């Protein structure tokens, strides 16, 4: 069997829409970083990949960009896409691209015989380490840093690389080679960090298949209707308002704490008609109800309704306006709903109930928590980062949807790479009940603590100090620590406790995931969709809805968007407006 060397890879590309091409490539062998290879065109890169003696694995950091140049070459040079590697033959390729445009892998088959397949497999290292190359170099305490380069400089076909360009390329691929070597040495060898976490958990839990059976697709899809994300909400009284001093609370490892301490479902669920009846064996349940509702006075809204044209999908609903709405709620969410809303005309349709256990994930959480703590003590930043990734990447795998549609690259009439949806396929799910209950417990913790802050401060100060929540954090107006600790579980380190993460001197909040806060005369800008580098243009005076950073403002940097052109893809300046 052919050996499989692993390399990190990177392309440098022109920025001219009329001359879009690869002008440099770099490769660095993982585990042998002195082996650095570079060239100045994509043909030489493909020739390197087409090695009859060795099948390589390559890792690009953001394959969505570099991969388009590979597709452009393949589709213009007689290579054909095949849906399944079982149908591989000379000059074919497969790829794994999600319906949302997430690139995972490309596999190119150069020469296929009955005994041997000459191929290269290309992965996206961004799915393993979801940080910039610059941040990885700093966080991993690597001996080299990312350099800077003038991307817009004109470089002709056949351009001979300058020493600075070579150094830039070398640093980029070497940083990623060193980082991935750390991961591989921990036996984290999967295509994504989530897959690594799941594989590691399965090693620790030999009864995985008994606890988490593969559910029938129809059962999975019914239970999946209860699956929702984190609680993110801005108190209406602070919308588009500036506030003074405040605190930010964060939970110490919210999802891992839920996985360790709460009852979670396992095994085959049982269907029930009507309203759930108390069952000592099947303690957890998902209930389908129909009702109308109004938010109780002084209560925080807890309900989002998706896939319903009457409601915005990211809005927390205060009233159904008299309409009867059908909801699918875990018993955790149902208890919150009935506590926060006045509910009318309720009908209990049916649901699913589950056996429940504490401790299904305790060994896994304890193992990686201990490694994280020890890494912190030993100033081992790499192991600390890996441990955090492993702690936070497992639960999401349980929520993977078995209904998938991939994207397939093709050339349009203008010779530009485009993507079409493939046929829907059904894959085995992991176990959606675990994912939906973990997120339910997490929302409950953040909502209950937010409500406690609201209730306490209104009663004590006749003023609502609760400002904003985002998944595992709460922002509130300043109050004494010792007073807060009377009704909020605060500890800097204990799993599942809240810690005082930071103190700000003033803040302003426009909507969910759109706010600024000042810490020690430094402004922290959080705006969904805004590149971090553009935060420097925002201040308290201009931070309003409609504030724009326009592509034609030559004195500023800009947000970049993909533009597909003949030859590849460009990153072009685009307007950004706070909406």
Q: Would you kindly provide a written description of the structure presented here, covering whatever features stand out?
A:
The protein has helices spanning 42-49, 63-76, 133-139, 163-185, 193-204, 208-211, 217-224, 254-261, 331-340, 362-377, 381-392, 432-461, 481-484; strands at 6-13, 22-29, 32-39, 56-60, 80-81, 92-97, 103-112, 117-124, 232-234, 241-243, 246-251, 264-273, 284-295, 325-330, 341-357, 403-411, 417-426, 466-470, 473-477, 498-504, 506-511, 514-519, 522-527, 548-549, 559-565, 568-574, 576-577. The protein has 13 helices and 27 strands. The chain has 579 residues and is of the alpha+beta class. The protein is globular and about 75 Å long. Among the domains are: 6-185, Ribonuclease H-like superfamily/Ribonuclease H (Nucleotidyltransferase, domain 5, 2-Layer Sandwich); 433-577, no CATH class. It has an 8-stranded mixed sheet, sandwiched between helices. It has a 5-stranded antiparallel sheet with strand order 9-18-19-11-20, covered by helices on one side. A 4-stranded antiparallel sheet has the order 10-21-22-23, with no helix packed on it.
Features:
579 residues, alpha+beta, Nucleotidyltransferase, domain 5, 8-stranded mixed sheet, 5-stranded antiparallel sheet, 27 strands, globular
